[in-house]
Structures are given as structure tokens and as C-alpha cells.
Design brief:
By secondary structure, the chain is α+β, with helices and mostly antiparallel strands. 30% of the residues lie in helices and 15% in strands. It folds into two domains: 2-257, Sandwich (Jelly Rolls); 259-313, no CATH class. The protein has nine helices and eleven strands.
């Protein structure tokens, strides 16, 4: 998968060296076979990362909604509607709960989440060394009745390319299981290179019998290929399901968040050169004028050069950032 982003054997060798160093071989094999994998907390979130992410996410929820999220009981989000209730019809609740978008700037721990070596190794395996952040948000789902329809994350019509153009790496911040409203997957569906049609996309009673709930502990990192069919079961248990999706893309795919020129210099300075590439500072296209084109090209050249010199991974085809 990684070859398509340039660099050939050198990129692949570097990626596999990192995968072996982090003990991720079994999870890569699981990902290749099923289209998704759950990396356990002891590997995915060392040094209390998951606990700090959960606290930061609850803080974001309190700031944005004016009330502290009820983690134990879920009363703050029970039957939550919001703007995503339309996904389940006029009378339904939100099948995804409350989605808080664009949280990278809310707490420094979200920068740490993006730079987590385990996350980067898996994202690189799927989308290459030029992979960029498309969006980072947080889902909070309380007890609800609506399920989330199966879909793919690849933003193209069928047939989809077999290599991942996008990937999702979700920090599971509370236990995932059927009763808790976990993500639903159709194992092996990433190989079909198309989106579900009609009843194939229905989750739950009368729906796709191949859709299964993922079960993993808080602190796990759930990784899936952009072509994998996924949705979500409704939550029947008290409490909140909290997760932090880090949605990544190859640099020529339009991102959900526009971060070019928006990252504060102090944030760039306190992170490695790869952080600038991940946050889209190496992307030149999307300019608004000739002057903006020049500014973007100069910025991109600066950060691409710094990343290339860092020795993280060869960047043989610099034009992919445009």
C-alpha cells in the first residue's frame, strides 16, 4: 500500500522497520485480512495517554455544551439529537451522538495523540509517509435508539481503488462492546472496493447479518482501511461511549479540515518536522490568488525540506504535496 505514495522499496522498508519495532506485525496482518484491527491499550496508549485524552475530551464537551458530560450515567447525552439526528430520520436521535469537531487546538494532549508513534506507523502503512490529518474530533454517545448506517470513508464513487486513500485511527476512550454502542464492521469488506447498497447498509435488527460489533478496552486504538464498511450499534447501557477519531488522508485527497497556514508557529516549533507535514503545511494547492500561491509554495518547500532532512521516511515524489 505504501509504495503508491512514492519512495518504493525504501519507504516500505522504513515502514516495516517501525512496525516491527513497535510490535505491530499481528495487527497489520489483522488489518489486511479484515479491514480493521484493535491495538490494545498497553501498546497503543503508553504513559497514560488514553486517560489524559479522556479528561481533555470531557473538558471540551463541558466548554462547548456548558455542562460536564455525565460519563457514568450518560444523562447529558441520552437520546441526544443535535444536527446529526437527521441521519436516522425526522423523529430519531443522533446515531453518532454528539460530534465535537476540530479539537486539535483545544489541548496539547491532542498534538500528542497525533504524534503517537503507533498511530503514525499504522497510518503510514496505509497511506504513506506523506499522510496528512484530514480531521480530528470527538464522539460522545449516550443511551440511544438509532444505529448508524454502514458506509465507507473513501470519498469516491465505486469502484474504489484497492489501496487506502484515507484511513481512520480512533482512540477508544471507554470500553467498546455491543451494549455500549460500539462501531460495527463487516470483516473483509475493504476488498470489495465499493460502498454498501440498500439493505446492505442497515445495522441491527433486520440489517446486514455480516455486521459485527467490535469489542475492545478503553485505551485501544481502532484502525481501519478507508474502504471498510462500518457504522455503529445503538447504546443500550448507561454511560457514555467516548472516542477520538483521527481521520487521515493521502495528501492529494481533499481534507475535512483546512489547516494550511492555520497552525500557530509555537505549535510547529514544539513538535518534530513531521507534525508540519501531518497538519497540511506541505500542501500547495487550494490557493486563493497568485500571491497566495507563492506563499503556499514557499511554506510547503520549507516544511517538506525539513521533513526530508529529519530522516523519518524518504519523500521521493515531492509533487504529491501539491
Amino acid at each position: 500500500m505504501i509504495d503508491e505514495n512514492g519512495g518504493g522499496d525504501a519507504n516500505l522498508a522504513n515502514a516495516w522497520e517501525e512496525i516491527r519495532r513497535l510490535r505491530l506485525e499481528a495487527y497489520v496482518a489483522d488489518l489486511d485480512a479484515h479491514g480493521y484491527t484493535a491495538i490494545p491499550p498497553e501498546i497503543a496508549c503508553p504513559d497514560g495517554l488514553a486517560e489524559r485524552l479522556l479528561e481533555a475530551a470531557l473538558n471540551v464537551g463541558e466548554r462547548r455544551n456548558g455542562v460536564r458530560p455525565d460519563l457514568a450515567g450518560g444523562t447529558t447525552h441520552a437520546g441526544f439529537k443535535g444536527r446529526f439526528a437527521s441521519f436516522s430520520g425526522a423523529d430519531g436521535d443522533s446515531p453518532i451522538g454528539d460530534l465535537m469537531q476540530s479539537i486539535l487546538f483545544e489541548d496539547r494532549v491532542f498534538e500528542e495523540a497525533l504524534m503517537n508513534p503507533v498511530l503514525l506507523a499504522m497510518a503510514t502503512y496505509l497511506c504513506g509517509y506523506g499522510v496528512v490529518l484530514s480531521s480530528m474530533g470527538c464522539f460522545m454517545k449516550g443511551p440511544n435508539v438509532s444505529t448508524f448506517t454502514l458506509h465507507t470513508d473513501t470519498p469516491l464513487p465505486a469502484p474504489l481503488p484497492p489501496q487506502a486513500l484515507v484511513c481512520n485511527l480512533t482512540y477508544v476512550l471507554t470500553d467498546f462492546n455491543r451494549e455500549n454502542g460500539s462501531t460495527a464492521f463487516v470483516p473483509g469488506s475493504h476488498k470489495w472496493c465499493r460502498s454498501p447498497v440498500g439493505q446492505e447498509g442497515v445495522v441491527g435488527e433486520g440489517g446486514n447479518p455480516a455486521a459485527v460489533p467490535v469489542e475492545c478496552k478503553a485505551g485501544s486504538l481502532l484502525v481501519w482501511h478507508g474502504n471498510t464498511w462500518h457504522g455503529a450499534f445503538n447504546r443500550t447501557a448507561p454511560g457514555l461511549r467516548v472516542s477520538l477519531p483521527v481521520y487521515m488522508a493521502r495528501p492529494y485527497i481533499r481534507t475535512q479540515e483546512g489547516l494550511v497556514g492555520k497552525i500557530p508557529q509555537e505549535m510547529l516549533d514544539r513538535n518534530s518536522p513531521r507534525f508540519a507535514i501531518l497538519t497540511q503545511q506541505g500542501i500547495m494547492y487550494g490557493y486563493e490568488s497568485q500571491e497566495d500561491s507563492f506563499a503556499r509554495a514557499e511554506r510547503a518547500a520549507k516544511y517538506i525540506a525539513a521533513y526530508s532532512k529529519s530522516g523519518v521516511g524518504p519523500l521521493a515524489q515531492q509533487g504529491l504535496y501539491s
